[in-house]
Amino acid sequence: MTLKQFFDFLSSNPSLILFYAIAVPLSALLTGFFSKGEGHLSPWKYLYSFLIYFVCVPGIFAFMFNIYLFLFERQSVWDLNIYTQILPVIVMVVTLLIIKKFVSLDDIPGFGKITGLIIMITAILMIMWFLDKTRIYVFSYMPFSQVILIIVGLLIAIRFAWRRLAT
To answer: Under a CB-based contact definition with an 8 Å cutoff, are residues 53 and 114 in contact?
Structure first.
């Protein structure tokens, strides 16, 4: 199954996505009510962590996929699929706002890893976009492994610079 076939399947069965869009924020809301201000304690913070990962992975994927489609594929805004390209991002934002209302996101284990994932994906997309726009083509005898090392070095430098700016 290709990614296009998967998105076509989800588009033809919107009830799956609508169930996801209702169930996850509702679960976060119910968890907030049942935790009664104890969201930073052991069983609740892991449930919040699960909910955050469950909503952020599809939301980040949909957001970055939209950026890819707009920058590289030159897709029109009018061709956006509401179920697979917009709804996961909205559900992610709504769920994070609900969770933030009940518990500090700094108390959630693994939340820093989500921001690190966003930074790395954004950095890779920026590097790819820069290389695409400058149209630099190099014909050399440089081995491909050295090119990969240069890209990894750039990513490490971006990550280090981001941490220095954030602290």
So the answer is: yes
Among residues 64, 66, 25, 70, the alpha carbon closest in space to that of 48 is found at: 25
Which amino acid does the sequence have at 95? Answer: T
CB 10 within 8 A of CB 16: yes
Token readout for 22 is 């209702």
What's the predicted TM-score (pTM) here? 0.77
Rounded to whole angstroms, what are the CA distances from 165 to 34, 161, 162?
Answer: 37, 6, 5
Backbone angles phi, psi at 71, to 5 degrees: -80, -45
Task: Render pLDDT for 101-117 as a digit per residue (tens, 0 to 9).
Answer: 988 888 888 777 777 77
Q: Within a 10 A sphere around the Cβ of 84, how many other Cβ atoms?
A: 21
